[in-house]
Amino acid sequence: MGKKVNPRVFRLGLSEKWRSRWFSGRDFAKFLEQDVSIRRFIKRKLRDAAIDRIEIERSRGEVSINVTAAKPGLIIGRGGAGIDELKKEIAKKFLDQNTKLNINITEVSVPNLSASVIVESIREDVEKRIPYRRVMKQNIDKVVKAGGKGVKIMLAGRLNGVDIARTEKLTQGKIPLQTMRANIDYSRGVANTMYGTIGIKVWIYKGEYFDKKPKDDNKRKAPQKSVKLFSKEKLEFQPVGKDAGANKKETVKKK
Fold first, then answer.
1. Could you tell me the domains of the chain?
2. DSSP code at position 12
3. Could you report the average pLDDT of every consecutive run of 10 residues in the chain (255 residues)?
């Protein structure tokens, strides 16, 4: 039997970083529960903003939440009113009174290369009862046009309302899941339909990841010595043996 491993967790330290960055000894369980509940709340509240990732950083008495989304305008609101409202709700529900909260919103550079954004677009279309095969093909075309080298989309559940649940999968390009230097974005979600829930999984292969080290300007290459293979002067060959005397006479007559 094969074991299914989350591609993001499998590549931690290469193309992926920890989504929660903090250290705690005694309050580890408390902070972990806060992180999970904050992520669930933000994803539920900002469902239409097409969130790519939520990163949480902690220091002494301070929490920073970095939200990357495809539609940051829906989160910020007019004059930043949306962020202020979000801050108040998170601080009231999950954090202590003495904890300072910062929320940073950034925009996704290429939304169609984000697995989370593709999952959200598939979820919206499936919940609108659009045929699932058309939805899968349209999103695969989006990723390929954006520059993705490989895509895999999987839907599972009572597709089109049939009685027996099944799994449908469409792929294009290559998905090297066992290659650790491969930069693969992965996400999953759930679409709630009148027939029940439909699971969605998306893999996007963006290319290989290499740790490029900066070049040192101090280390210069040693100058290469130029080697003269042929001189411009004509080469004169002196014969050896019997022909040597004859050639000498001919040279004397010419002079």
1. 18-108 (3.30.300.20), 112-208 (3.30.1140.32)
2. B
3. 81 86 90 94 90 92 92 86 90 89 91 94 94 95 94 94 93 92 92 94 90 52 49 49 52 46
